[in-house]
Amino acid sequence: MNAELLAIGSELLGPLRAETNTLWLTEQLLDAGVSVAARVTVADELALIASALRTALGRAELVIATGGLGPTADDLTREAAAAATGRELHRDPQILERLRERFARYGRVMSETNAKQADVVAGAAPLPNPRGTAPGQRLEVDGRQLFLLPGPPGEMKPMFAAEVLPRLREALGPTAVVRRRVLKIASMPEGEVDQVVAPVYSRFDNPRTTILGSPGQVELHLVAQGGDADEAEAAIARLAAELRQALPGRIYSEDGRDLPAVVLDLLAERGLTVALAESCTGGLLASRLTDLPGSSRVLERGYVTYSNRAKTDELGIAPALLEKVGAVSEAVAAAMAEGARERAKASIGVGITGVAGPDGGTPEKPVGLVFIAIDGAAGSALRRCLFPGSRERIRYQASQYALEMLRRGLLLLPLP
């Protein structure tokens, strides 16, 4: 069975709200053995919604639409479903009475605008919604299934679990078990990763591999099917082993952890502490580490030394060095890492200095130039990086690269 998902609501096409329903539904459907062929977001316009529903029903065996079942004038999914299927709407007196009773339980009189939530497409089966006032609907259209679900995730998810998923499993019968694993790689360009791993994953039909890139990170999503969980996991394990061999030491997580959590665990396992000296990242690295519980075990201190005076006062960097080579330089990054470690009496020091932009770059030191150094128990390392993108993106990539340098240095250390 293949599916198409529609997210309905003009607010989902603006800059203030992200659409998450179809992402969640995709995961649930994959686990049930249903592949998702398309996801579409549609504004609150009757003709647009009806057209999208007609198109989806012409291509997919299962169509799920979320949103547009509320009581306001721009909630048009019921009307659009009727138009798309050539059916009429009728007002269900039982649903209308339950709506009035629900409002009465809370000591309120139901507005007449809520009455439209009792409108049902001819031939549809209403789906109860104990979490809200908008019932869902289930229609069969030329052998294809159409489900209309409410938009709020707190209402949509329970309705899917109670009313949609059991019917799908009954219709599908025994299906393959689906398992997923995400392999995460830091500070390596997406194209470079794919050049290495494509010859490996392209030999496998099961699992399927999707490569996703973001600033400072690449993810390999492996999805496998099997007759049972053990068979699916074994298929993933075979491919993952070959990918690890193709990328020795570069895959930092296969268990869902992000890079800050991996680094914190490595530090804790080895009984080490770290001190951070940040200039262009302005405390971002410290923030990413302290977002996690348990960071107090290993993070000794963080210095935001944005000015030259701060680098001298807090880290002991000689003014003559700053005058000679400038704050954005290999020598100053190394001195920042060493100064942070010594001043904090920590096991490891990290120094970051650079030009985050959008202004301040020169031909010799352009925007995006960052120097990162580590010093101490994880070894001494210094990197010159040139990151593309906006100020926010440059700062994030610098923090990510520093974490990856820490991780790789820590892996060379034996456990105590």
Q: Mean pLDDT, nearest integer?
A: 95
Low-confidence stretches: none
Gyration radius from CA atoms, angstroms: 28 Å
| Major β-sheet strand ordering | 2-1-3-8-7-6
- CATH topology descriptor of the largest domain: Molybdenum Cofactor Biosythetic Enzyme, Chain A
Beta-strand content: 15-25%
Order of helices and strands: EHEHEHEHEEEEHEHEEHEHEHEHHHEEEH
Question: For this structure, what is the CATH class of the largest domain?
Answer: Alpha Beta
**What would you give as the CATH superfamily of the largest domain?**
MoaB/Mog-like domain
- Number of helices, where a helix is a run of at least 4 consecutive DSSP H or I residues: 13
Shape verdict: elongated
**Structural class of the helix and strand makeup?**
alpha/beta
Q: What CATH architecture label of the largest domain applies?
A: 3-Layer(aba) Sandwich
Describe the protein in words.
This protein has 416 residues and is α/β, with parallel strands linked by helices. It folds into three domains: 2-172, Molybdenum Cofactor Biosythetic Enzyme, Chain A; 177-253, Alpha-Beta Plaits; 259-411, CinA-like (Maf protein, Alpha-Beta Complex). The protein contains 13 helices and 17 strands. It has helices at residues 21-32, 46-59, 77-85, 93-105, 153-172, 190-201, 229-246, 259-270, 284-290, 308-315, 319-325, 330-344, 391-411, and strands at residues 2-8, 35-42, 62-66, 89-91, 119-121, 125-127, 136-141, 144-149, 177-186, 208-214, 217-226, 251-253, 274-278, 299-304, 348-354, 369-376, 381-386. The strands form four sheets. Strands 2-1-3-8-7-6 form a six-stranded mixed β-sheet, with helices on both faces. Helix 1 links the parallel strand 1 (2-8) and strand 2. The longest helix is centred in the last third of the chain and has 21 residues, at 391-411. The radius of gyration is 28 Å and the shape is elongated. The two termini are 53 Å apart. The model has no long low-confidence stretch (mean pLDDT 95).
